[in-house]
Design a protein that fits this description.
The complex is a heterodimer of chains A (153) and B (220). With 153 residues, chain A is mostly helical. Helices cover 72% and strands 0% of the residues of chain A. Chain A has helices at 3-13, 20-28, 30-46, 61-73, 77-82, 84-108, 118-126, 133-152. Chain B is 73% helix and 0% strand. Chain B has helices at 2-5, 29-38, 42-64, 67-84, 94-121, 126-142, 144-160, 164-174, 180-187, 191-214. In chain B, helix 3 crosses helix 5, helix 6 crosses helix 7 and helix 9 (180-187) crosses helix 10 (191-214). The radius of gyration of chain B is 20 Å and the shape is globular. The chains are: A mainly alpha (153), B mainly alpha (220).
């Protein structure tokens, strides 16, 4: 599109006749003439979005707007939970609780020697309980001493 | 025609930007009203609602042609104005700002509606969907009312393909009927810039139409 036409295009599309140069150029330039015609059609197409009747809201519109605003202001329970400061506090409390529960579980876990595989643990548990002779003698002495003290009473 | 549909470079024009008195949006009567709302003055907000409600309804109705939707979207527009007026920086007129919010809300609504429609149609068999599509096209071709609807759908689709700023300028010029001079005052850009931007926006619209044609959708 040539300069004189670009210059006056908006005026022309608005329904006003631009400079004489615009008109005379259009008459002599077929390319510009076609382009302007297409843009005029486009302009007409956009204007279908004009409201062809006056539109007024039903009475009480302002009250309904305030209602809508209030809905946004009054947060839901989910919005409250997602609120940054409360969310941070909940996350902190959860972390502390997790650490406490973890510490409790670790402290109550029965001692197992490290690096012992399940077969070795089973082997230890399966061994018959054999007391040594020294322990047996100690037990016997203890029983005798108990009997003697019982007779004394 | 090819020369037109491509985005043409817009050489610097010989004309100098016109030295017109720029409107200072910071010191207008509207600016006072805006500052009052920013200070949580409810009476000032009510004044804005009452002043612009008819305009907002007209913009929405022009785009959607549905009274019920217009009410719902208008409520949403004013609610947005209430919550974001603190960010209004007086770089444009209040009307331009409200216009932008309103058009964006309409497009948001149309997008959501399209998604809902897609979900709804996904419940039908392919055959049903095809039958519905064909019946839509048939109606579009035969009745003038539906031709107007198809034209509106087409231009809305094309306007969606260009930037928010380009869309605003085209709508303010063509739908609202503002002159280049008025647009210059509303946006605080000089008239030559407005002309260049409008020309480029029109070229982009044409390119979008061309792409749409190529992708097999009918323009009638």
């Amino acid at each position: 599109m040539h300069q004189p036409v670009r210059e006056g295009l908006e005026e022309y599309l608005a329904g006003r006749l631009p400079s004489g140069e615009f008109e005379s150029h259009l008459q002599s330039c077929a390319e510009c003439s076609v382009e302007v015609e297409i843009l005029r059609e486009q302009s007409r197409l956009v204007r279908v979005l004009r409201a062809d009747e006056a539109v007024e809201p039903a009475p009480g519109f302002y009250a309904r707007v305030l209602n809508r605003i209030e809905q946004h202001v009054r947060p839901s329970i989910w919005a409250l939970l997602l609120e940054p400061s409360l969310g941070r506090r909940i996350a902190m409390a959860s972390a502390v609780l997790t650490v406490a529960i973890g510490a409790y579980i670790v402290s109550t876990e029965p001692f197992r020697p490290a690096r012992m595989n399940p077969t070795a643990i089973y082997a230890i548990q399966a061994l018959p309980q054999q007391d040594t002779p020294a322990v047996e003698a100690q037990d016997r002495d203890l029983v005798l001493a108990n009997l003697a003290s019982f007779q004394d009473n | 025609m090819d020369g037109l549909t491509g985005v043409l470079p817009f050489p610097a024009t010989g004309a100098r930007p016109q030295a017109k008195t720029r409107v200072d949006h910071r010191n207008s009567e509207e600016a006072v009203l805006v500052r009052r709302i920013q200070a949580r003055d409810e009476i000032a907000f009510r004044e804005i609602v009452e002043r612009y409600q008819a305009k907002v309804f007209s913009i929405i109705f022009g785009i959607l042609r549905n009274h019920n939707d217009a009410e719902d979207i208008a409520q949403q527009v004013f609610s947005k104005i209430y919550f974001s007026i603190g960010n209004f920086d007086f770089r444009s007129s209040l009307l331009t700002w409200i216009y932008k919010i309103t058009v964006n809300e309409c497009y948001d609504y149309l997008r959501k509606k399209r998604v809902r429609k897609l979900v709804y149609e996904s419940d039908f068999s392919e055959e049903d969907a095809l039958r519905m599509e064909n019946s839509d096209t048939a109606t579009d071709q035969h009745t003038p009312v539906d031709t107007a609807l198809a034209q509106r759908d087409l231009i809305l689709k094309l306007l969606e393909k260009i930037s928010e700023e380009d869309r605003m300028l085209i709508l303010l010029k063509e739908v609202e009927g503002h002159s280049v001079e008025e647009l210059s005052q509303m946006t605080r850009m000089n008239e030559n810039t407005i002309k260049v931007k409008l020309f480029r926006a029109r070229q982009k619209l044409l390119k979008a139409a061309q792409r749409l044609n190529r992708s097999g959708q009918s323009i009638s």
